[in-house]
Amino acid sequence: MLEKISSYSEDSNIPYHKCCKDQYLRDLSKGNESTTDSKEFIISGPQQTRSTEFAKELKNIKLKEALVKFLIDHWADDEMAPIIGKKTIYLNHDLCYVYSATENTVTRTINHDLSCQDHEEADTK
């Protein structure tokens, strides 16, 4: 996922990327849309195979939460340093996580000025 995001800027000299996940990605059950059940999801690693109904399962808030929590930790692994390269990655989910790479080492910090733990986005309908 980070490789895909990073590839968008390789030719355009964009120095950073912002990835945001806010509460507006909540369950579709609040509307009239159909939704998947509320089963728990565990993402064990980047090589885990995904369901054949992954797009449908993305309607489940618990999968979205598990995916973002996985990305928060996975993107901090040093193996992601070549992908991050000279860019700065911002991932906002309650806190604003900032990723950068230097000499094959990834640094993850929290930018408290950009964090907003108690904010729920307005309904997008």
Gist of the model:
The chain has one domain.
Describe this structure in words.
With about 120 residues, the protein is α+β, with helices and mostly antiparallel strands. It has one domain. Helices cover about 20% and strands about 20% of the residues. It is built from four helices and four strands, in the order H-E-H-H-H-E-E-E. A four-stranded mixed sheet has the order 1-2-3-4. The radius of gyration is 16 Å and the shape is flat. It starts with a helix and ends in a 15-residue tail after the last strand. The model is unreliable at about 25-30 and about 30-35 (pLDDT under 50).
* Tertiary shape: flat
Largest sheet: 4 strands, mixed
Poorly predicted tracts of residues: 24-29, 32-36
Could you give the count of β-strands?
4
Count the domains: 1
Order of helices and strands: HEHHHEEE
Strand content: 15-25%
Distance, first to last CA = 27 Å
Helix content: 10-25%
Helix-strand makeup class: alpha+beta
Describe the SSE topology:
Blueprint: H1 2-7, E1 16-20, H2 54-57, H3 61-74, H4 81-84, E2 88-93, E3 95-102, E4 105-110
Parallel strand pairs: 1-2
Antiparallel strand pairs: 2-3, 3-4
Core attributes:
125 residues, four-stranded mixed beta sheet, alpha+beta
